[in-house]
Amino acid sequence: AMRSRAEVDATLQTAKLNPAELLPAVHCLSFSPQAGAGECYLLQLEPGLCAELEAGRSLVIRGEKDEQAVLCSKDKTYDMKIADTSNMLLFIPGCKTAEQLNADQASCDIIHSQIAGFSNNYWELRRCRPKLKKLRKLLMEDPYEGPDSQKDPTLTFSKYTTEDLLSLIQASEEEILHQLQVINACKIEGSWRILEFDYEMKLLNHVTQLIDSESWSLSKVPLRTCLEELGSLEPKEMIEHILLSYGRRYIDDGEIYFEMHEDKICRAIAQMLLQNAVKFNLLEFQEVWQQSVPEGMTARLDQLKGLALVDKTSRPETIFLLKVEDLPEENQERFNSLFSIREKWTEVDITPYIQDLCAEKQTVGTLLTKYARSSMQNGVKVYNSRRPIS
């Protein structure tokens, strides 16, 4: 039943409210027959995300059945958490606020509004790191071994297009495309592939040998000649891909050249040497490594951050492969894993293995404070686990 003005005034009097202190317009609310809890979801957006929607762009919720949902804009990823409210939130289409009523004095004094829905909670968004570990895992199911690989043709693996990755990986499009670059993935017949490591090394070797035999400067390797000279050995797009992976492309006088990244090349050769041994005598390794890198390049241990770890406590000192991408993605699990490999870490040693866990404004120091405890050992600050490692 619609309320009359007399009923409203009687209610105000019972409530001992002075009508003179209130706006003349009155909202009479009633639940519409369709109003039900769980029909409506509220999402709290920061101004930047609001602007995205207002500009007509989409926000996408990503995740498979067994994953915690994330929300992605074009370039950022957010964790979604339900926040409960003590006040019930009502959705009222066409509801007029006090400001609107003040501006429009002529509005009728009783407004009948129907409540379309209600909620006791809303989704809260928190910027989070994109969950990219799965990207490499999917592509490693079937690494590309070259055009004439001897792989059993009856074994068929999933091939992943950009669209597939967008539906499977919990990260924004820009973060996924950037990560594909980081892991040196390449598009082959429309699908993203990672080169099998030995094949990648074979390609890199062709290029470095050519640079050596032509006595080119490492900062000016001509694409055209590389393709002409090596095109008979490997597909031209693979030669170009390896140059892009290990160099920076630039144009000079209409010709395309590459400036080769010394650190990247030395690092890859170290990985090739280390992956065949459990541990390597450090001095012997450094000698073999320097002999293995192309002429004119200097192999330095700081090129191996996040790839290999030196054990200074063993006699003689040793080095072994420990790749950051093989470690767990979640913070606590990452620290558990590191402390099971080594009980006490210096900040210098652990930094490359936790750097990628830092959120927007976090530092390695704040992560260590939260997940490790520090002590002094022979005048050096070291970190160990806060909890017993099983």
Automatic annotation (TrEMBL):
Tell me which GO cellular component terms the UniProt record holds: chromatin; chromosome, centromeric region; Ctf18 RFC-like complex
Name the family the entry cites. Belongs to the DCC1 family.
The keyword Transmembrane helix is annotated on this UniProt entry: no
List GO BP terms, alphabetically.
DNA replication; maintenance of mitotic sister chromatid cohesion
GN (gene name): Dscc1
Entry keywords, A to Z:
DNA replication
Could you identify this protein by its name? Answer: Sister chromatid cohesion protein DCC1
